[in-house]
Amino acid sequence: MNTALVVTPFGDPKQLAAACVLSDIRGSVVPVGGFSAIVLDDASREHATEVTQKLSKMAGRYEVLLLVREDDAIASGHYRGGKRQSEVPAGLALQNLPEDVERLLLGQADPADIEGAQHTADISKMQASALTMTGARAAIARTAIVWMIVAAVAFVALVIGAVVALSGPWYMWIATALAAGVFGVSLFRINKLLGRRK
Prior knowledge:
The protein is of the alpha+beta class. It has helices at about 15-20, 45-60, 90-95, 100-105, 125-130, 135-165, 170-195, and strands spanning about 5-10, 25-30, 35-40, 65-70, 75-80, 85, 120. It has a 7-stranded antiparallel β-sheet, with helices on both faces. The longest helix has about 35 residues, at about 135-165. The mean pLDDT is about 85.
C-alpha cells in the first residue's frame, strides 16, 4: 500500500486544512511539531507531486517536503514555488521530523490516531474561507454585509416611493430621490469594500 505525505510550513493545522479544502485537495491534516502535514487520500506519485506543487506555491518562499512510500521504498524531495528543488535522503528527512511522520508513512499509525488530526472532508468551503480570512478581511466582509442590507432597504424604499409618487403627493418624489441617493452610495461603498478584498 502506498502512502503520500506532505510536510508544510503551516503552523496551524486548521489553516492547512482550509487551504486544502479550497484547493480541492483531499486528505488528513495532522500537526507535525511546529508544522502541519497532510496524508493524501490519493497516494499515487503523480497526484502527490501535483498536490505538493500546489502547496509549495501557497507556502511562498518556504519549502515543503514530499514523502512517498511505494512498497518498501521511500522517496522524498523538497519543493518551493511549485518546483522541485532537491532530492533528500528519506532517512535524513525522517530523522529531523517527529516520530509520528515515520509511523504514518510506514502505515504503523492512522491519521485519526494523531491528536489534532482533521480530514478535509469534514470542513465545508464556507468554513474554509472563514478560517483563511484575516481579521482585517473579516472586518471588511462584515462592513460589506451591512452596506448590502442598507442597499436592499433603500432599493425597496425607492421602488415603493416611485410607485406612490406616480399617483400621490409631489413630496414623495423627494423621499424617492433620497432613497435613490442612499442606494447609490450603498452600491459605491460595497464595490469599494469588495475591491479592497482582492
